[in-house]
Amino acid sequence: MDTASRVVLIGGSAGGLQAILTLLPGLSARLNAAVIIVLHRQSSSDSVLAELLAVKTSLPVREAEEKELLLPGTIYIAPGDYHLLIETDHTLSLDYSEKVNFSRPSIDVTFTSAVEVFGPQTMAVLLSGANDDGVEGLADVHEAGGITIVQDPDTAIVDFMPRHAIQAVPVDYVLAAADMASFINSFAGLMVG
Fold this sequence. Notes:
It is an enzyme of class 3 (hydrolase). Helix 3 (107-118) packs parallel to helix 4. This protein has a single domain, classed as Methylesterase CheB, C-terminal domain (Rossmann fold), CATH 3.40.50.180. The strands form 2 sheets. Strands 3-4-2-1-7-8-9 form a 7-stranded parallel beta sheet, sandwiched between helices. The protein has 6 helices and 9 strands. Strand 1, helix 1 and strand 2 (34-39) form a beta-alpha-beta unit. With 193 residues, the protein is of the alpha/beta class.
């Protein structure tokens, strides 16, 4: 199978998991993009998180591993306590460097890394959260011509992250989590067959 030519990035912190669980069931089983989820959480909860997300979608869900190829129609979760980067050969790289915005994995690190590889074929979604992580990465996606979506702060469990993003970055869409899947499906397109 060919590597992904488009990527959908989803970042969240406090309250972000609930938003992800709301949007995942609407994703097409033939989604023609790789999906990368960066969620702030305790490092010990990785396998539980993958299992929890897998029951909400027909797409395969896996914890990202070093040098793993990014494939369309697959959901990758950034492992706890590692930054997740995308290399130019469309493989994943795990990094244990310093925390960014008090976070590892950092949403900004992944968003910025991905847009350097995928450029305008990047969609970034920022969900509920209590800090600034993801805002700078959203700006990078916007500047590269990618699509930016922020959760409607009125629907977020913790509205600080989405509210700050809307104030700081030209955001393409502000949506409730339940309305995001159709935008993601449209951006990604569907695999044939």
